[in-house]
Design a protein that fits this description.
477 residues, alpha/beta, Rossmann fold, Isoleucyl-tRNA Synthetase, Domain 1, 3 domains, 5-stranded parallel β-sheet, 16 strands, 45% helix, 16% strand, binds zinc ion
Length: 477
């Protein structure tokens, strides 16, 4: 199945052609764990999850790396101000390390509630295999130092009193991702609070020195002096570590385009001489009261706030499906109510179809499935895919078992928990995680690995796994 995606680099839709045999390699910028995320942040994660699920639906196995920014993200994007981790530590009277682990756990709980298809193990999957990697910046300092050294060896760095900087004037095409006119605007903005030692307003820190008069909680020795890595270098270093020097897709929010991703491209490509990623994809903002939802703007809604008001995290997921990921979306409680009602109706429809369908499995109707996947594989047009779901459910001429089969297929991408109670009731979380991994390995044709997981499920969890025309199934052994 062909998948067409909008590439910010070049600003046009392109068919996905994986750069190398094996899984599609995907990097998504992860959270800075100094505070709770807001639902605006989660809109981006939902978009990335739909991308990943669509790739799998279209039979592309995925190797996915996501970082945890637990050091080096400064309060201003222009490398000024304090490290957000140390700010969080001071605010809460904890160490920066405690803050990082606390908010990382909070993020992973939210990710599970949103049913993000991201299930990293304790170790990265073997090179070239599909699977998920969660990587912390503080655990990849050596990789970051190594990358800065490579850039230094190419003559693109210089030293100031507070760090090692990247000289953006020496990287042709610095503004390629954001557009040259955007870079001009950035330069203007940066001049207002310019660091007088920087050669160009758009230059950014690769390594920052610890202040001479104060001890930081997070600092490391480096060839340039004691300090900590810049935020941008961590993503490049870890993406290359787990996905290679050139990979398929790099994602983030639109606010990453002008600085974070522009800088990732500049530093990576100057070090390797190769494109870092083929596709750069960006999710638009979630607005609140017509402004970008942001911690600083006061309009800050957490996923927990929604849950405390009686919404399921998956109601928010449905709400996100109300707009294409490249369009802004307005948050309102009324819109969330409407999403909640619609998801309830879909769940009810699933339950009713299950009652009527009987035991005989039927294939999903090909033309309905084709309409659903055509929408998704056309740059993730979820609103249209969802419309195809509603339309198919209304088609009374289709047998209940046929509509049910369709809904089960659609659920693989939409992940609205339409059959969730049934799965949760019957398979304990550890076994469910193993079963998910089994399916991933099988999809990637890693039969030795999937067989090992099948044996583990049988031996440790008394679950018998078997294959049907509709895919992998399980039953108590
Ligand atoms: Zn990043």
């Amino acid at each position: 199945m062909d998948v067409t995606l909008f590439n910010t680099l070049g600003r046009k839709k392109e068919p996905l052609r994986p750069l190398a045999p094996g899984p599609v390699r995907l990097y998504t910028c992860g959270p800075t764990v100094y505070n709770y995320l807001h639902v605006g942040n989660y809109r981006t994660y939902v978009f990335e999850d739909v991308l990943k699920r669509t790739l799998k639906f279209a039979c592309f196995p995925v190797r996915h790396a996501m970082n945890i920014t637990d050091v080096g993200h400064l309060t201003s994007q222009a490398d000024e101000g304090e490290d957000k981790m140390e700010v969080g530590a001071a605010r809460e009277g904890k160490t920066a390390w405690e803050i990082a682990r606390f908010y990382e756990t909070a993020f992973l709980e939210d990710a599970a509630a949103l049913d993000l298809d991201f299930h990293p193990g304790s170790a990265a999957p073997p090179e070239g295999s599909p699977g998920d990697v969660l990587c912390r910046a503080t655990e990849h300092i050596a990789e970051q130092i190594d990358l800065v050294r490579r850039i230094e060896a190419k003559g693109l760095t210089y030293r100031t009193s507070d760090g090692i900087y990247f000289d953006t004037a020496k990287f042709p095409g610095y503004g390629r991702l954001a557009g040259e006119s955007h870079v001009e605007g950035l330069k203007e903005g940066a001049r207002v609070q310019a660091n007088p030692e920087k050669k160009n307003a758009t230059d950014f820190a690769l390594w920052k020195f610890s202040p001479a008069d104060a001890r930081r909680q997070m600092e490391w020795d480096s060839p340039w002096g004691r300090g900590f890595p810049g935020w941008h270098i961590e993503c490049s270093a870890m993406a290359m570590r787990y996905l290679g020097e050139s990979f398929d897709i790099h994602c983030g929010g639109v606010d990453h385009i002008p600085i974070h991703h522009a800088n990732e491209i500049a530093q990576s490509e100057s070090a390797t001489g190769k494109p870092l990623a083929h596709f750069w994809m960006h999710g638009e903002f979630l607005l609140m009261n017509k402004a970008k939802m942001a911690k600083s703007a006061g309009g800050f809604v957490r996923l927990k706030d929604l849950q405390e008001r009686g919404y399921d995290a998956l109601d928010f997921r449905y709400f996100c499906y109300g707009a294409h990921y490249r369009r802004q979306l307005d948050f309102s409680w009324e819109a969330l109510d409407a999403a909640k009602t619609s998801r309830r109706r879909l769940k009810d429809a699933a339950a009713a179809l299950k009652l009527k369908a009987g035991a005989a499995a039927q294939p999903a109707p090909a033309e309905a499935l084709a309409a659903f996947s055509a929408a998704l594989t056309d740059d993730l047009n979820v609103p249209e895919a969802l419309a195809a779901v509603w339309e198919t459910l209304r088609r009374e001429e289709l047998a209940p078992a046929v509509r049910l089969a369709f809904l089960r297929e659609a659920e693989r991408v939409l992940a609205l928990g339409l059959f969730k109670e049934e799965a949760a009731k019957s398979l304990p979380p550890k076994a469910l995680a193993l079963f998910d991994r089994y399916k991933a390995e099988r999809a990637a044709k890693n039969y030795a690995a999937s067989d090992a997981l099948r044996r583990e499920l049988l031996d440790k969890h008394k679950i018998h796994v078997f294959e049907t025309k509709e895919g992998s199934r399980w039953e108590p052994a």
